[in-house]
Amino acid sequence: MSTLSYEASKKRVFFGLGLLAAVTLVEVFVSLLGKGHVIKGAEDYSLVIYTAGIIIIVLSLYKAYFIIFEFMHMKYEVKGLALSVLLPTALLIWAIIAFFQEGDSWKNRREQIKAKDAQPAEKLSEPQGMLPSDTYIPENWL
Please, what's the b/e burial string for 91-116 (b: 16 or more CB within 10 A of its CB; e: otherwise)? Predict the structure, then answer.
């Protein structure tokens, strides 16, 4: 751990809070810009929306990094302990992405089923899945 004095530690905490507040304000501004509240008509362009989303994701990841390494004191710990905290987090993020992908696949498949159900059924000359009429069936089965 760092051997900072009380005053230096206090300055470091206030710097961290100020940095987090500034990054949050930038995130809010980018979000308002992407939704068209700052510049009217910006929400009509998908490039603006995707760029705003990427900027917000990057800034959120930076805030998470800063909180973990500064306020949770991970920068002062050994590498193995820091990785034991970060690896499960990375796996959790991967699982969330996998769940979204799976949910999208289910949604697309459901749309295919709805489209197929909307088509009229074919008229068949003889019922399908039943035994043909010339098949021997014992009397005690009926």
Answer: eeeeeeeeeeeeeeeeeeeeeeeeee
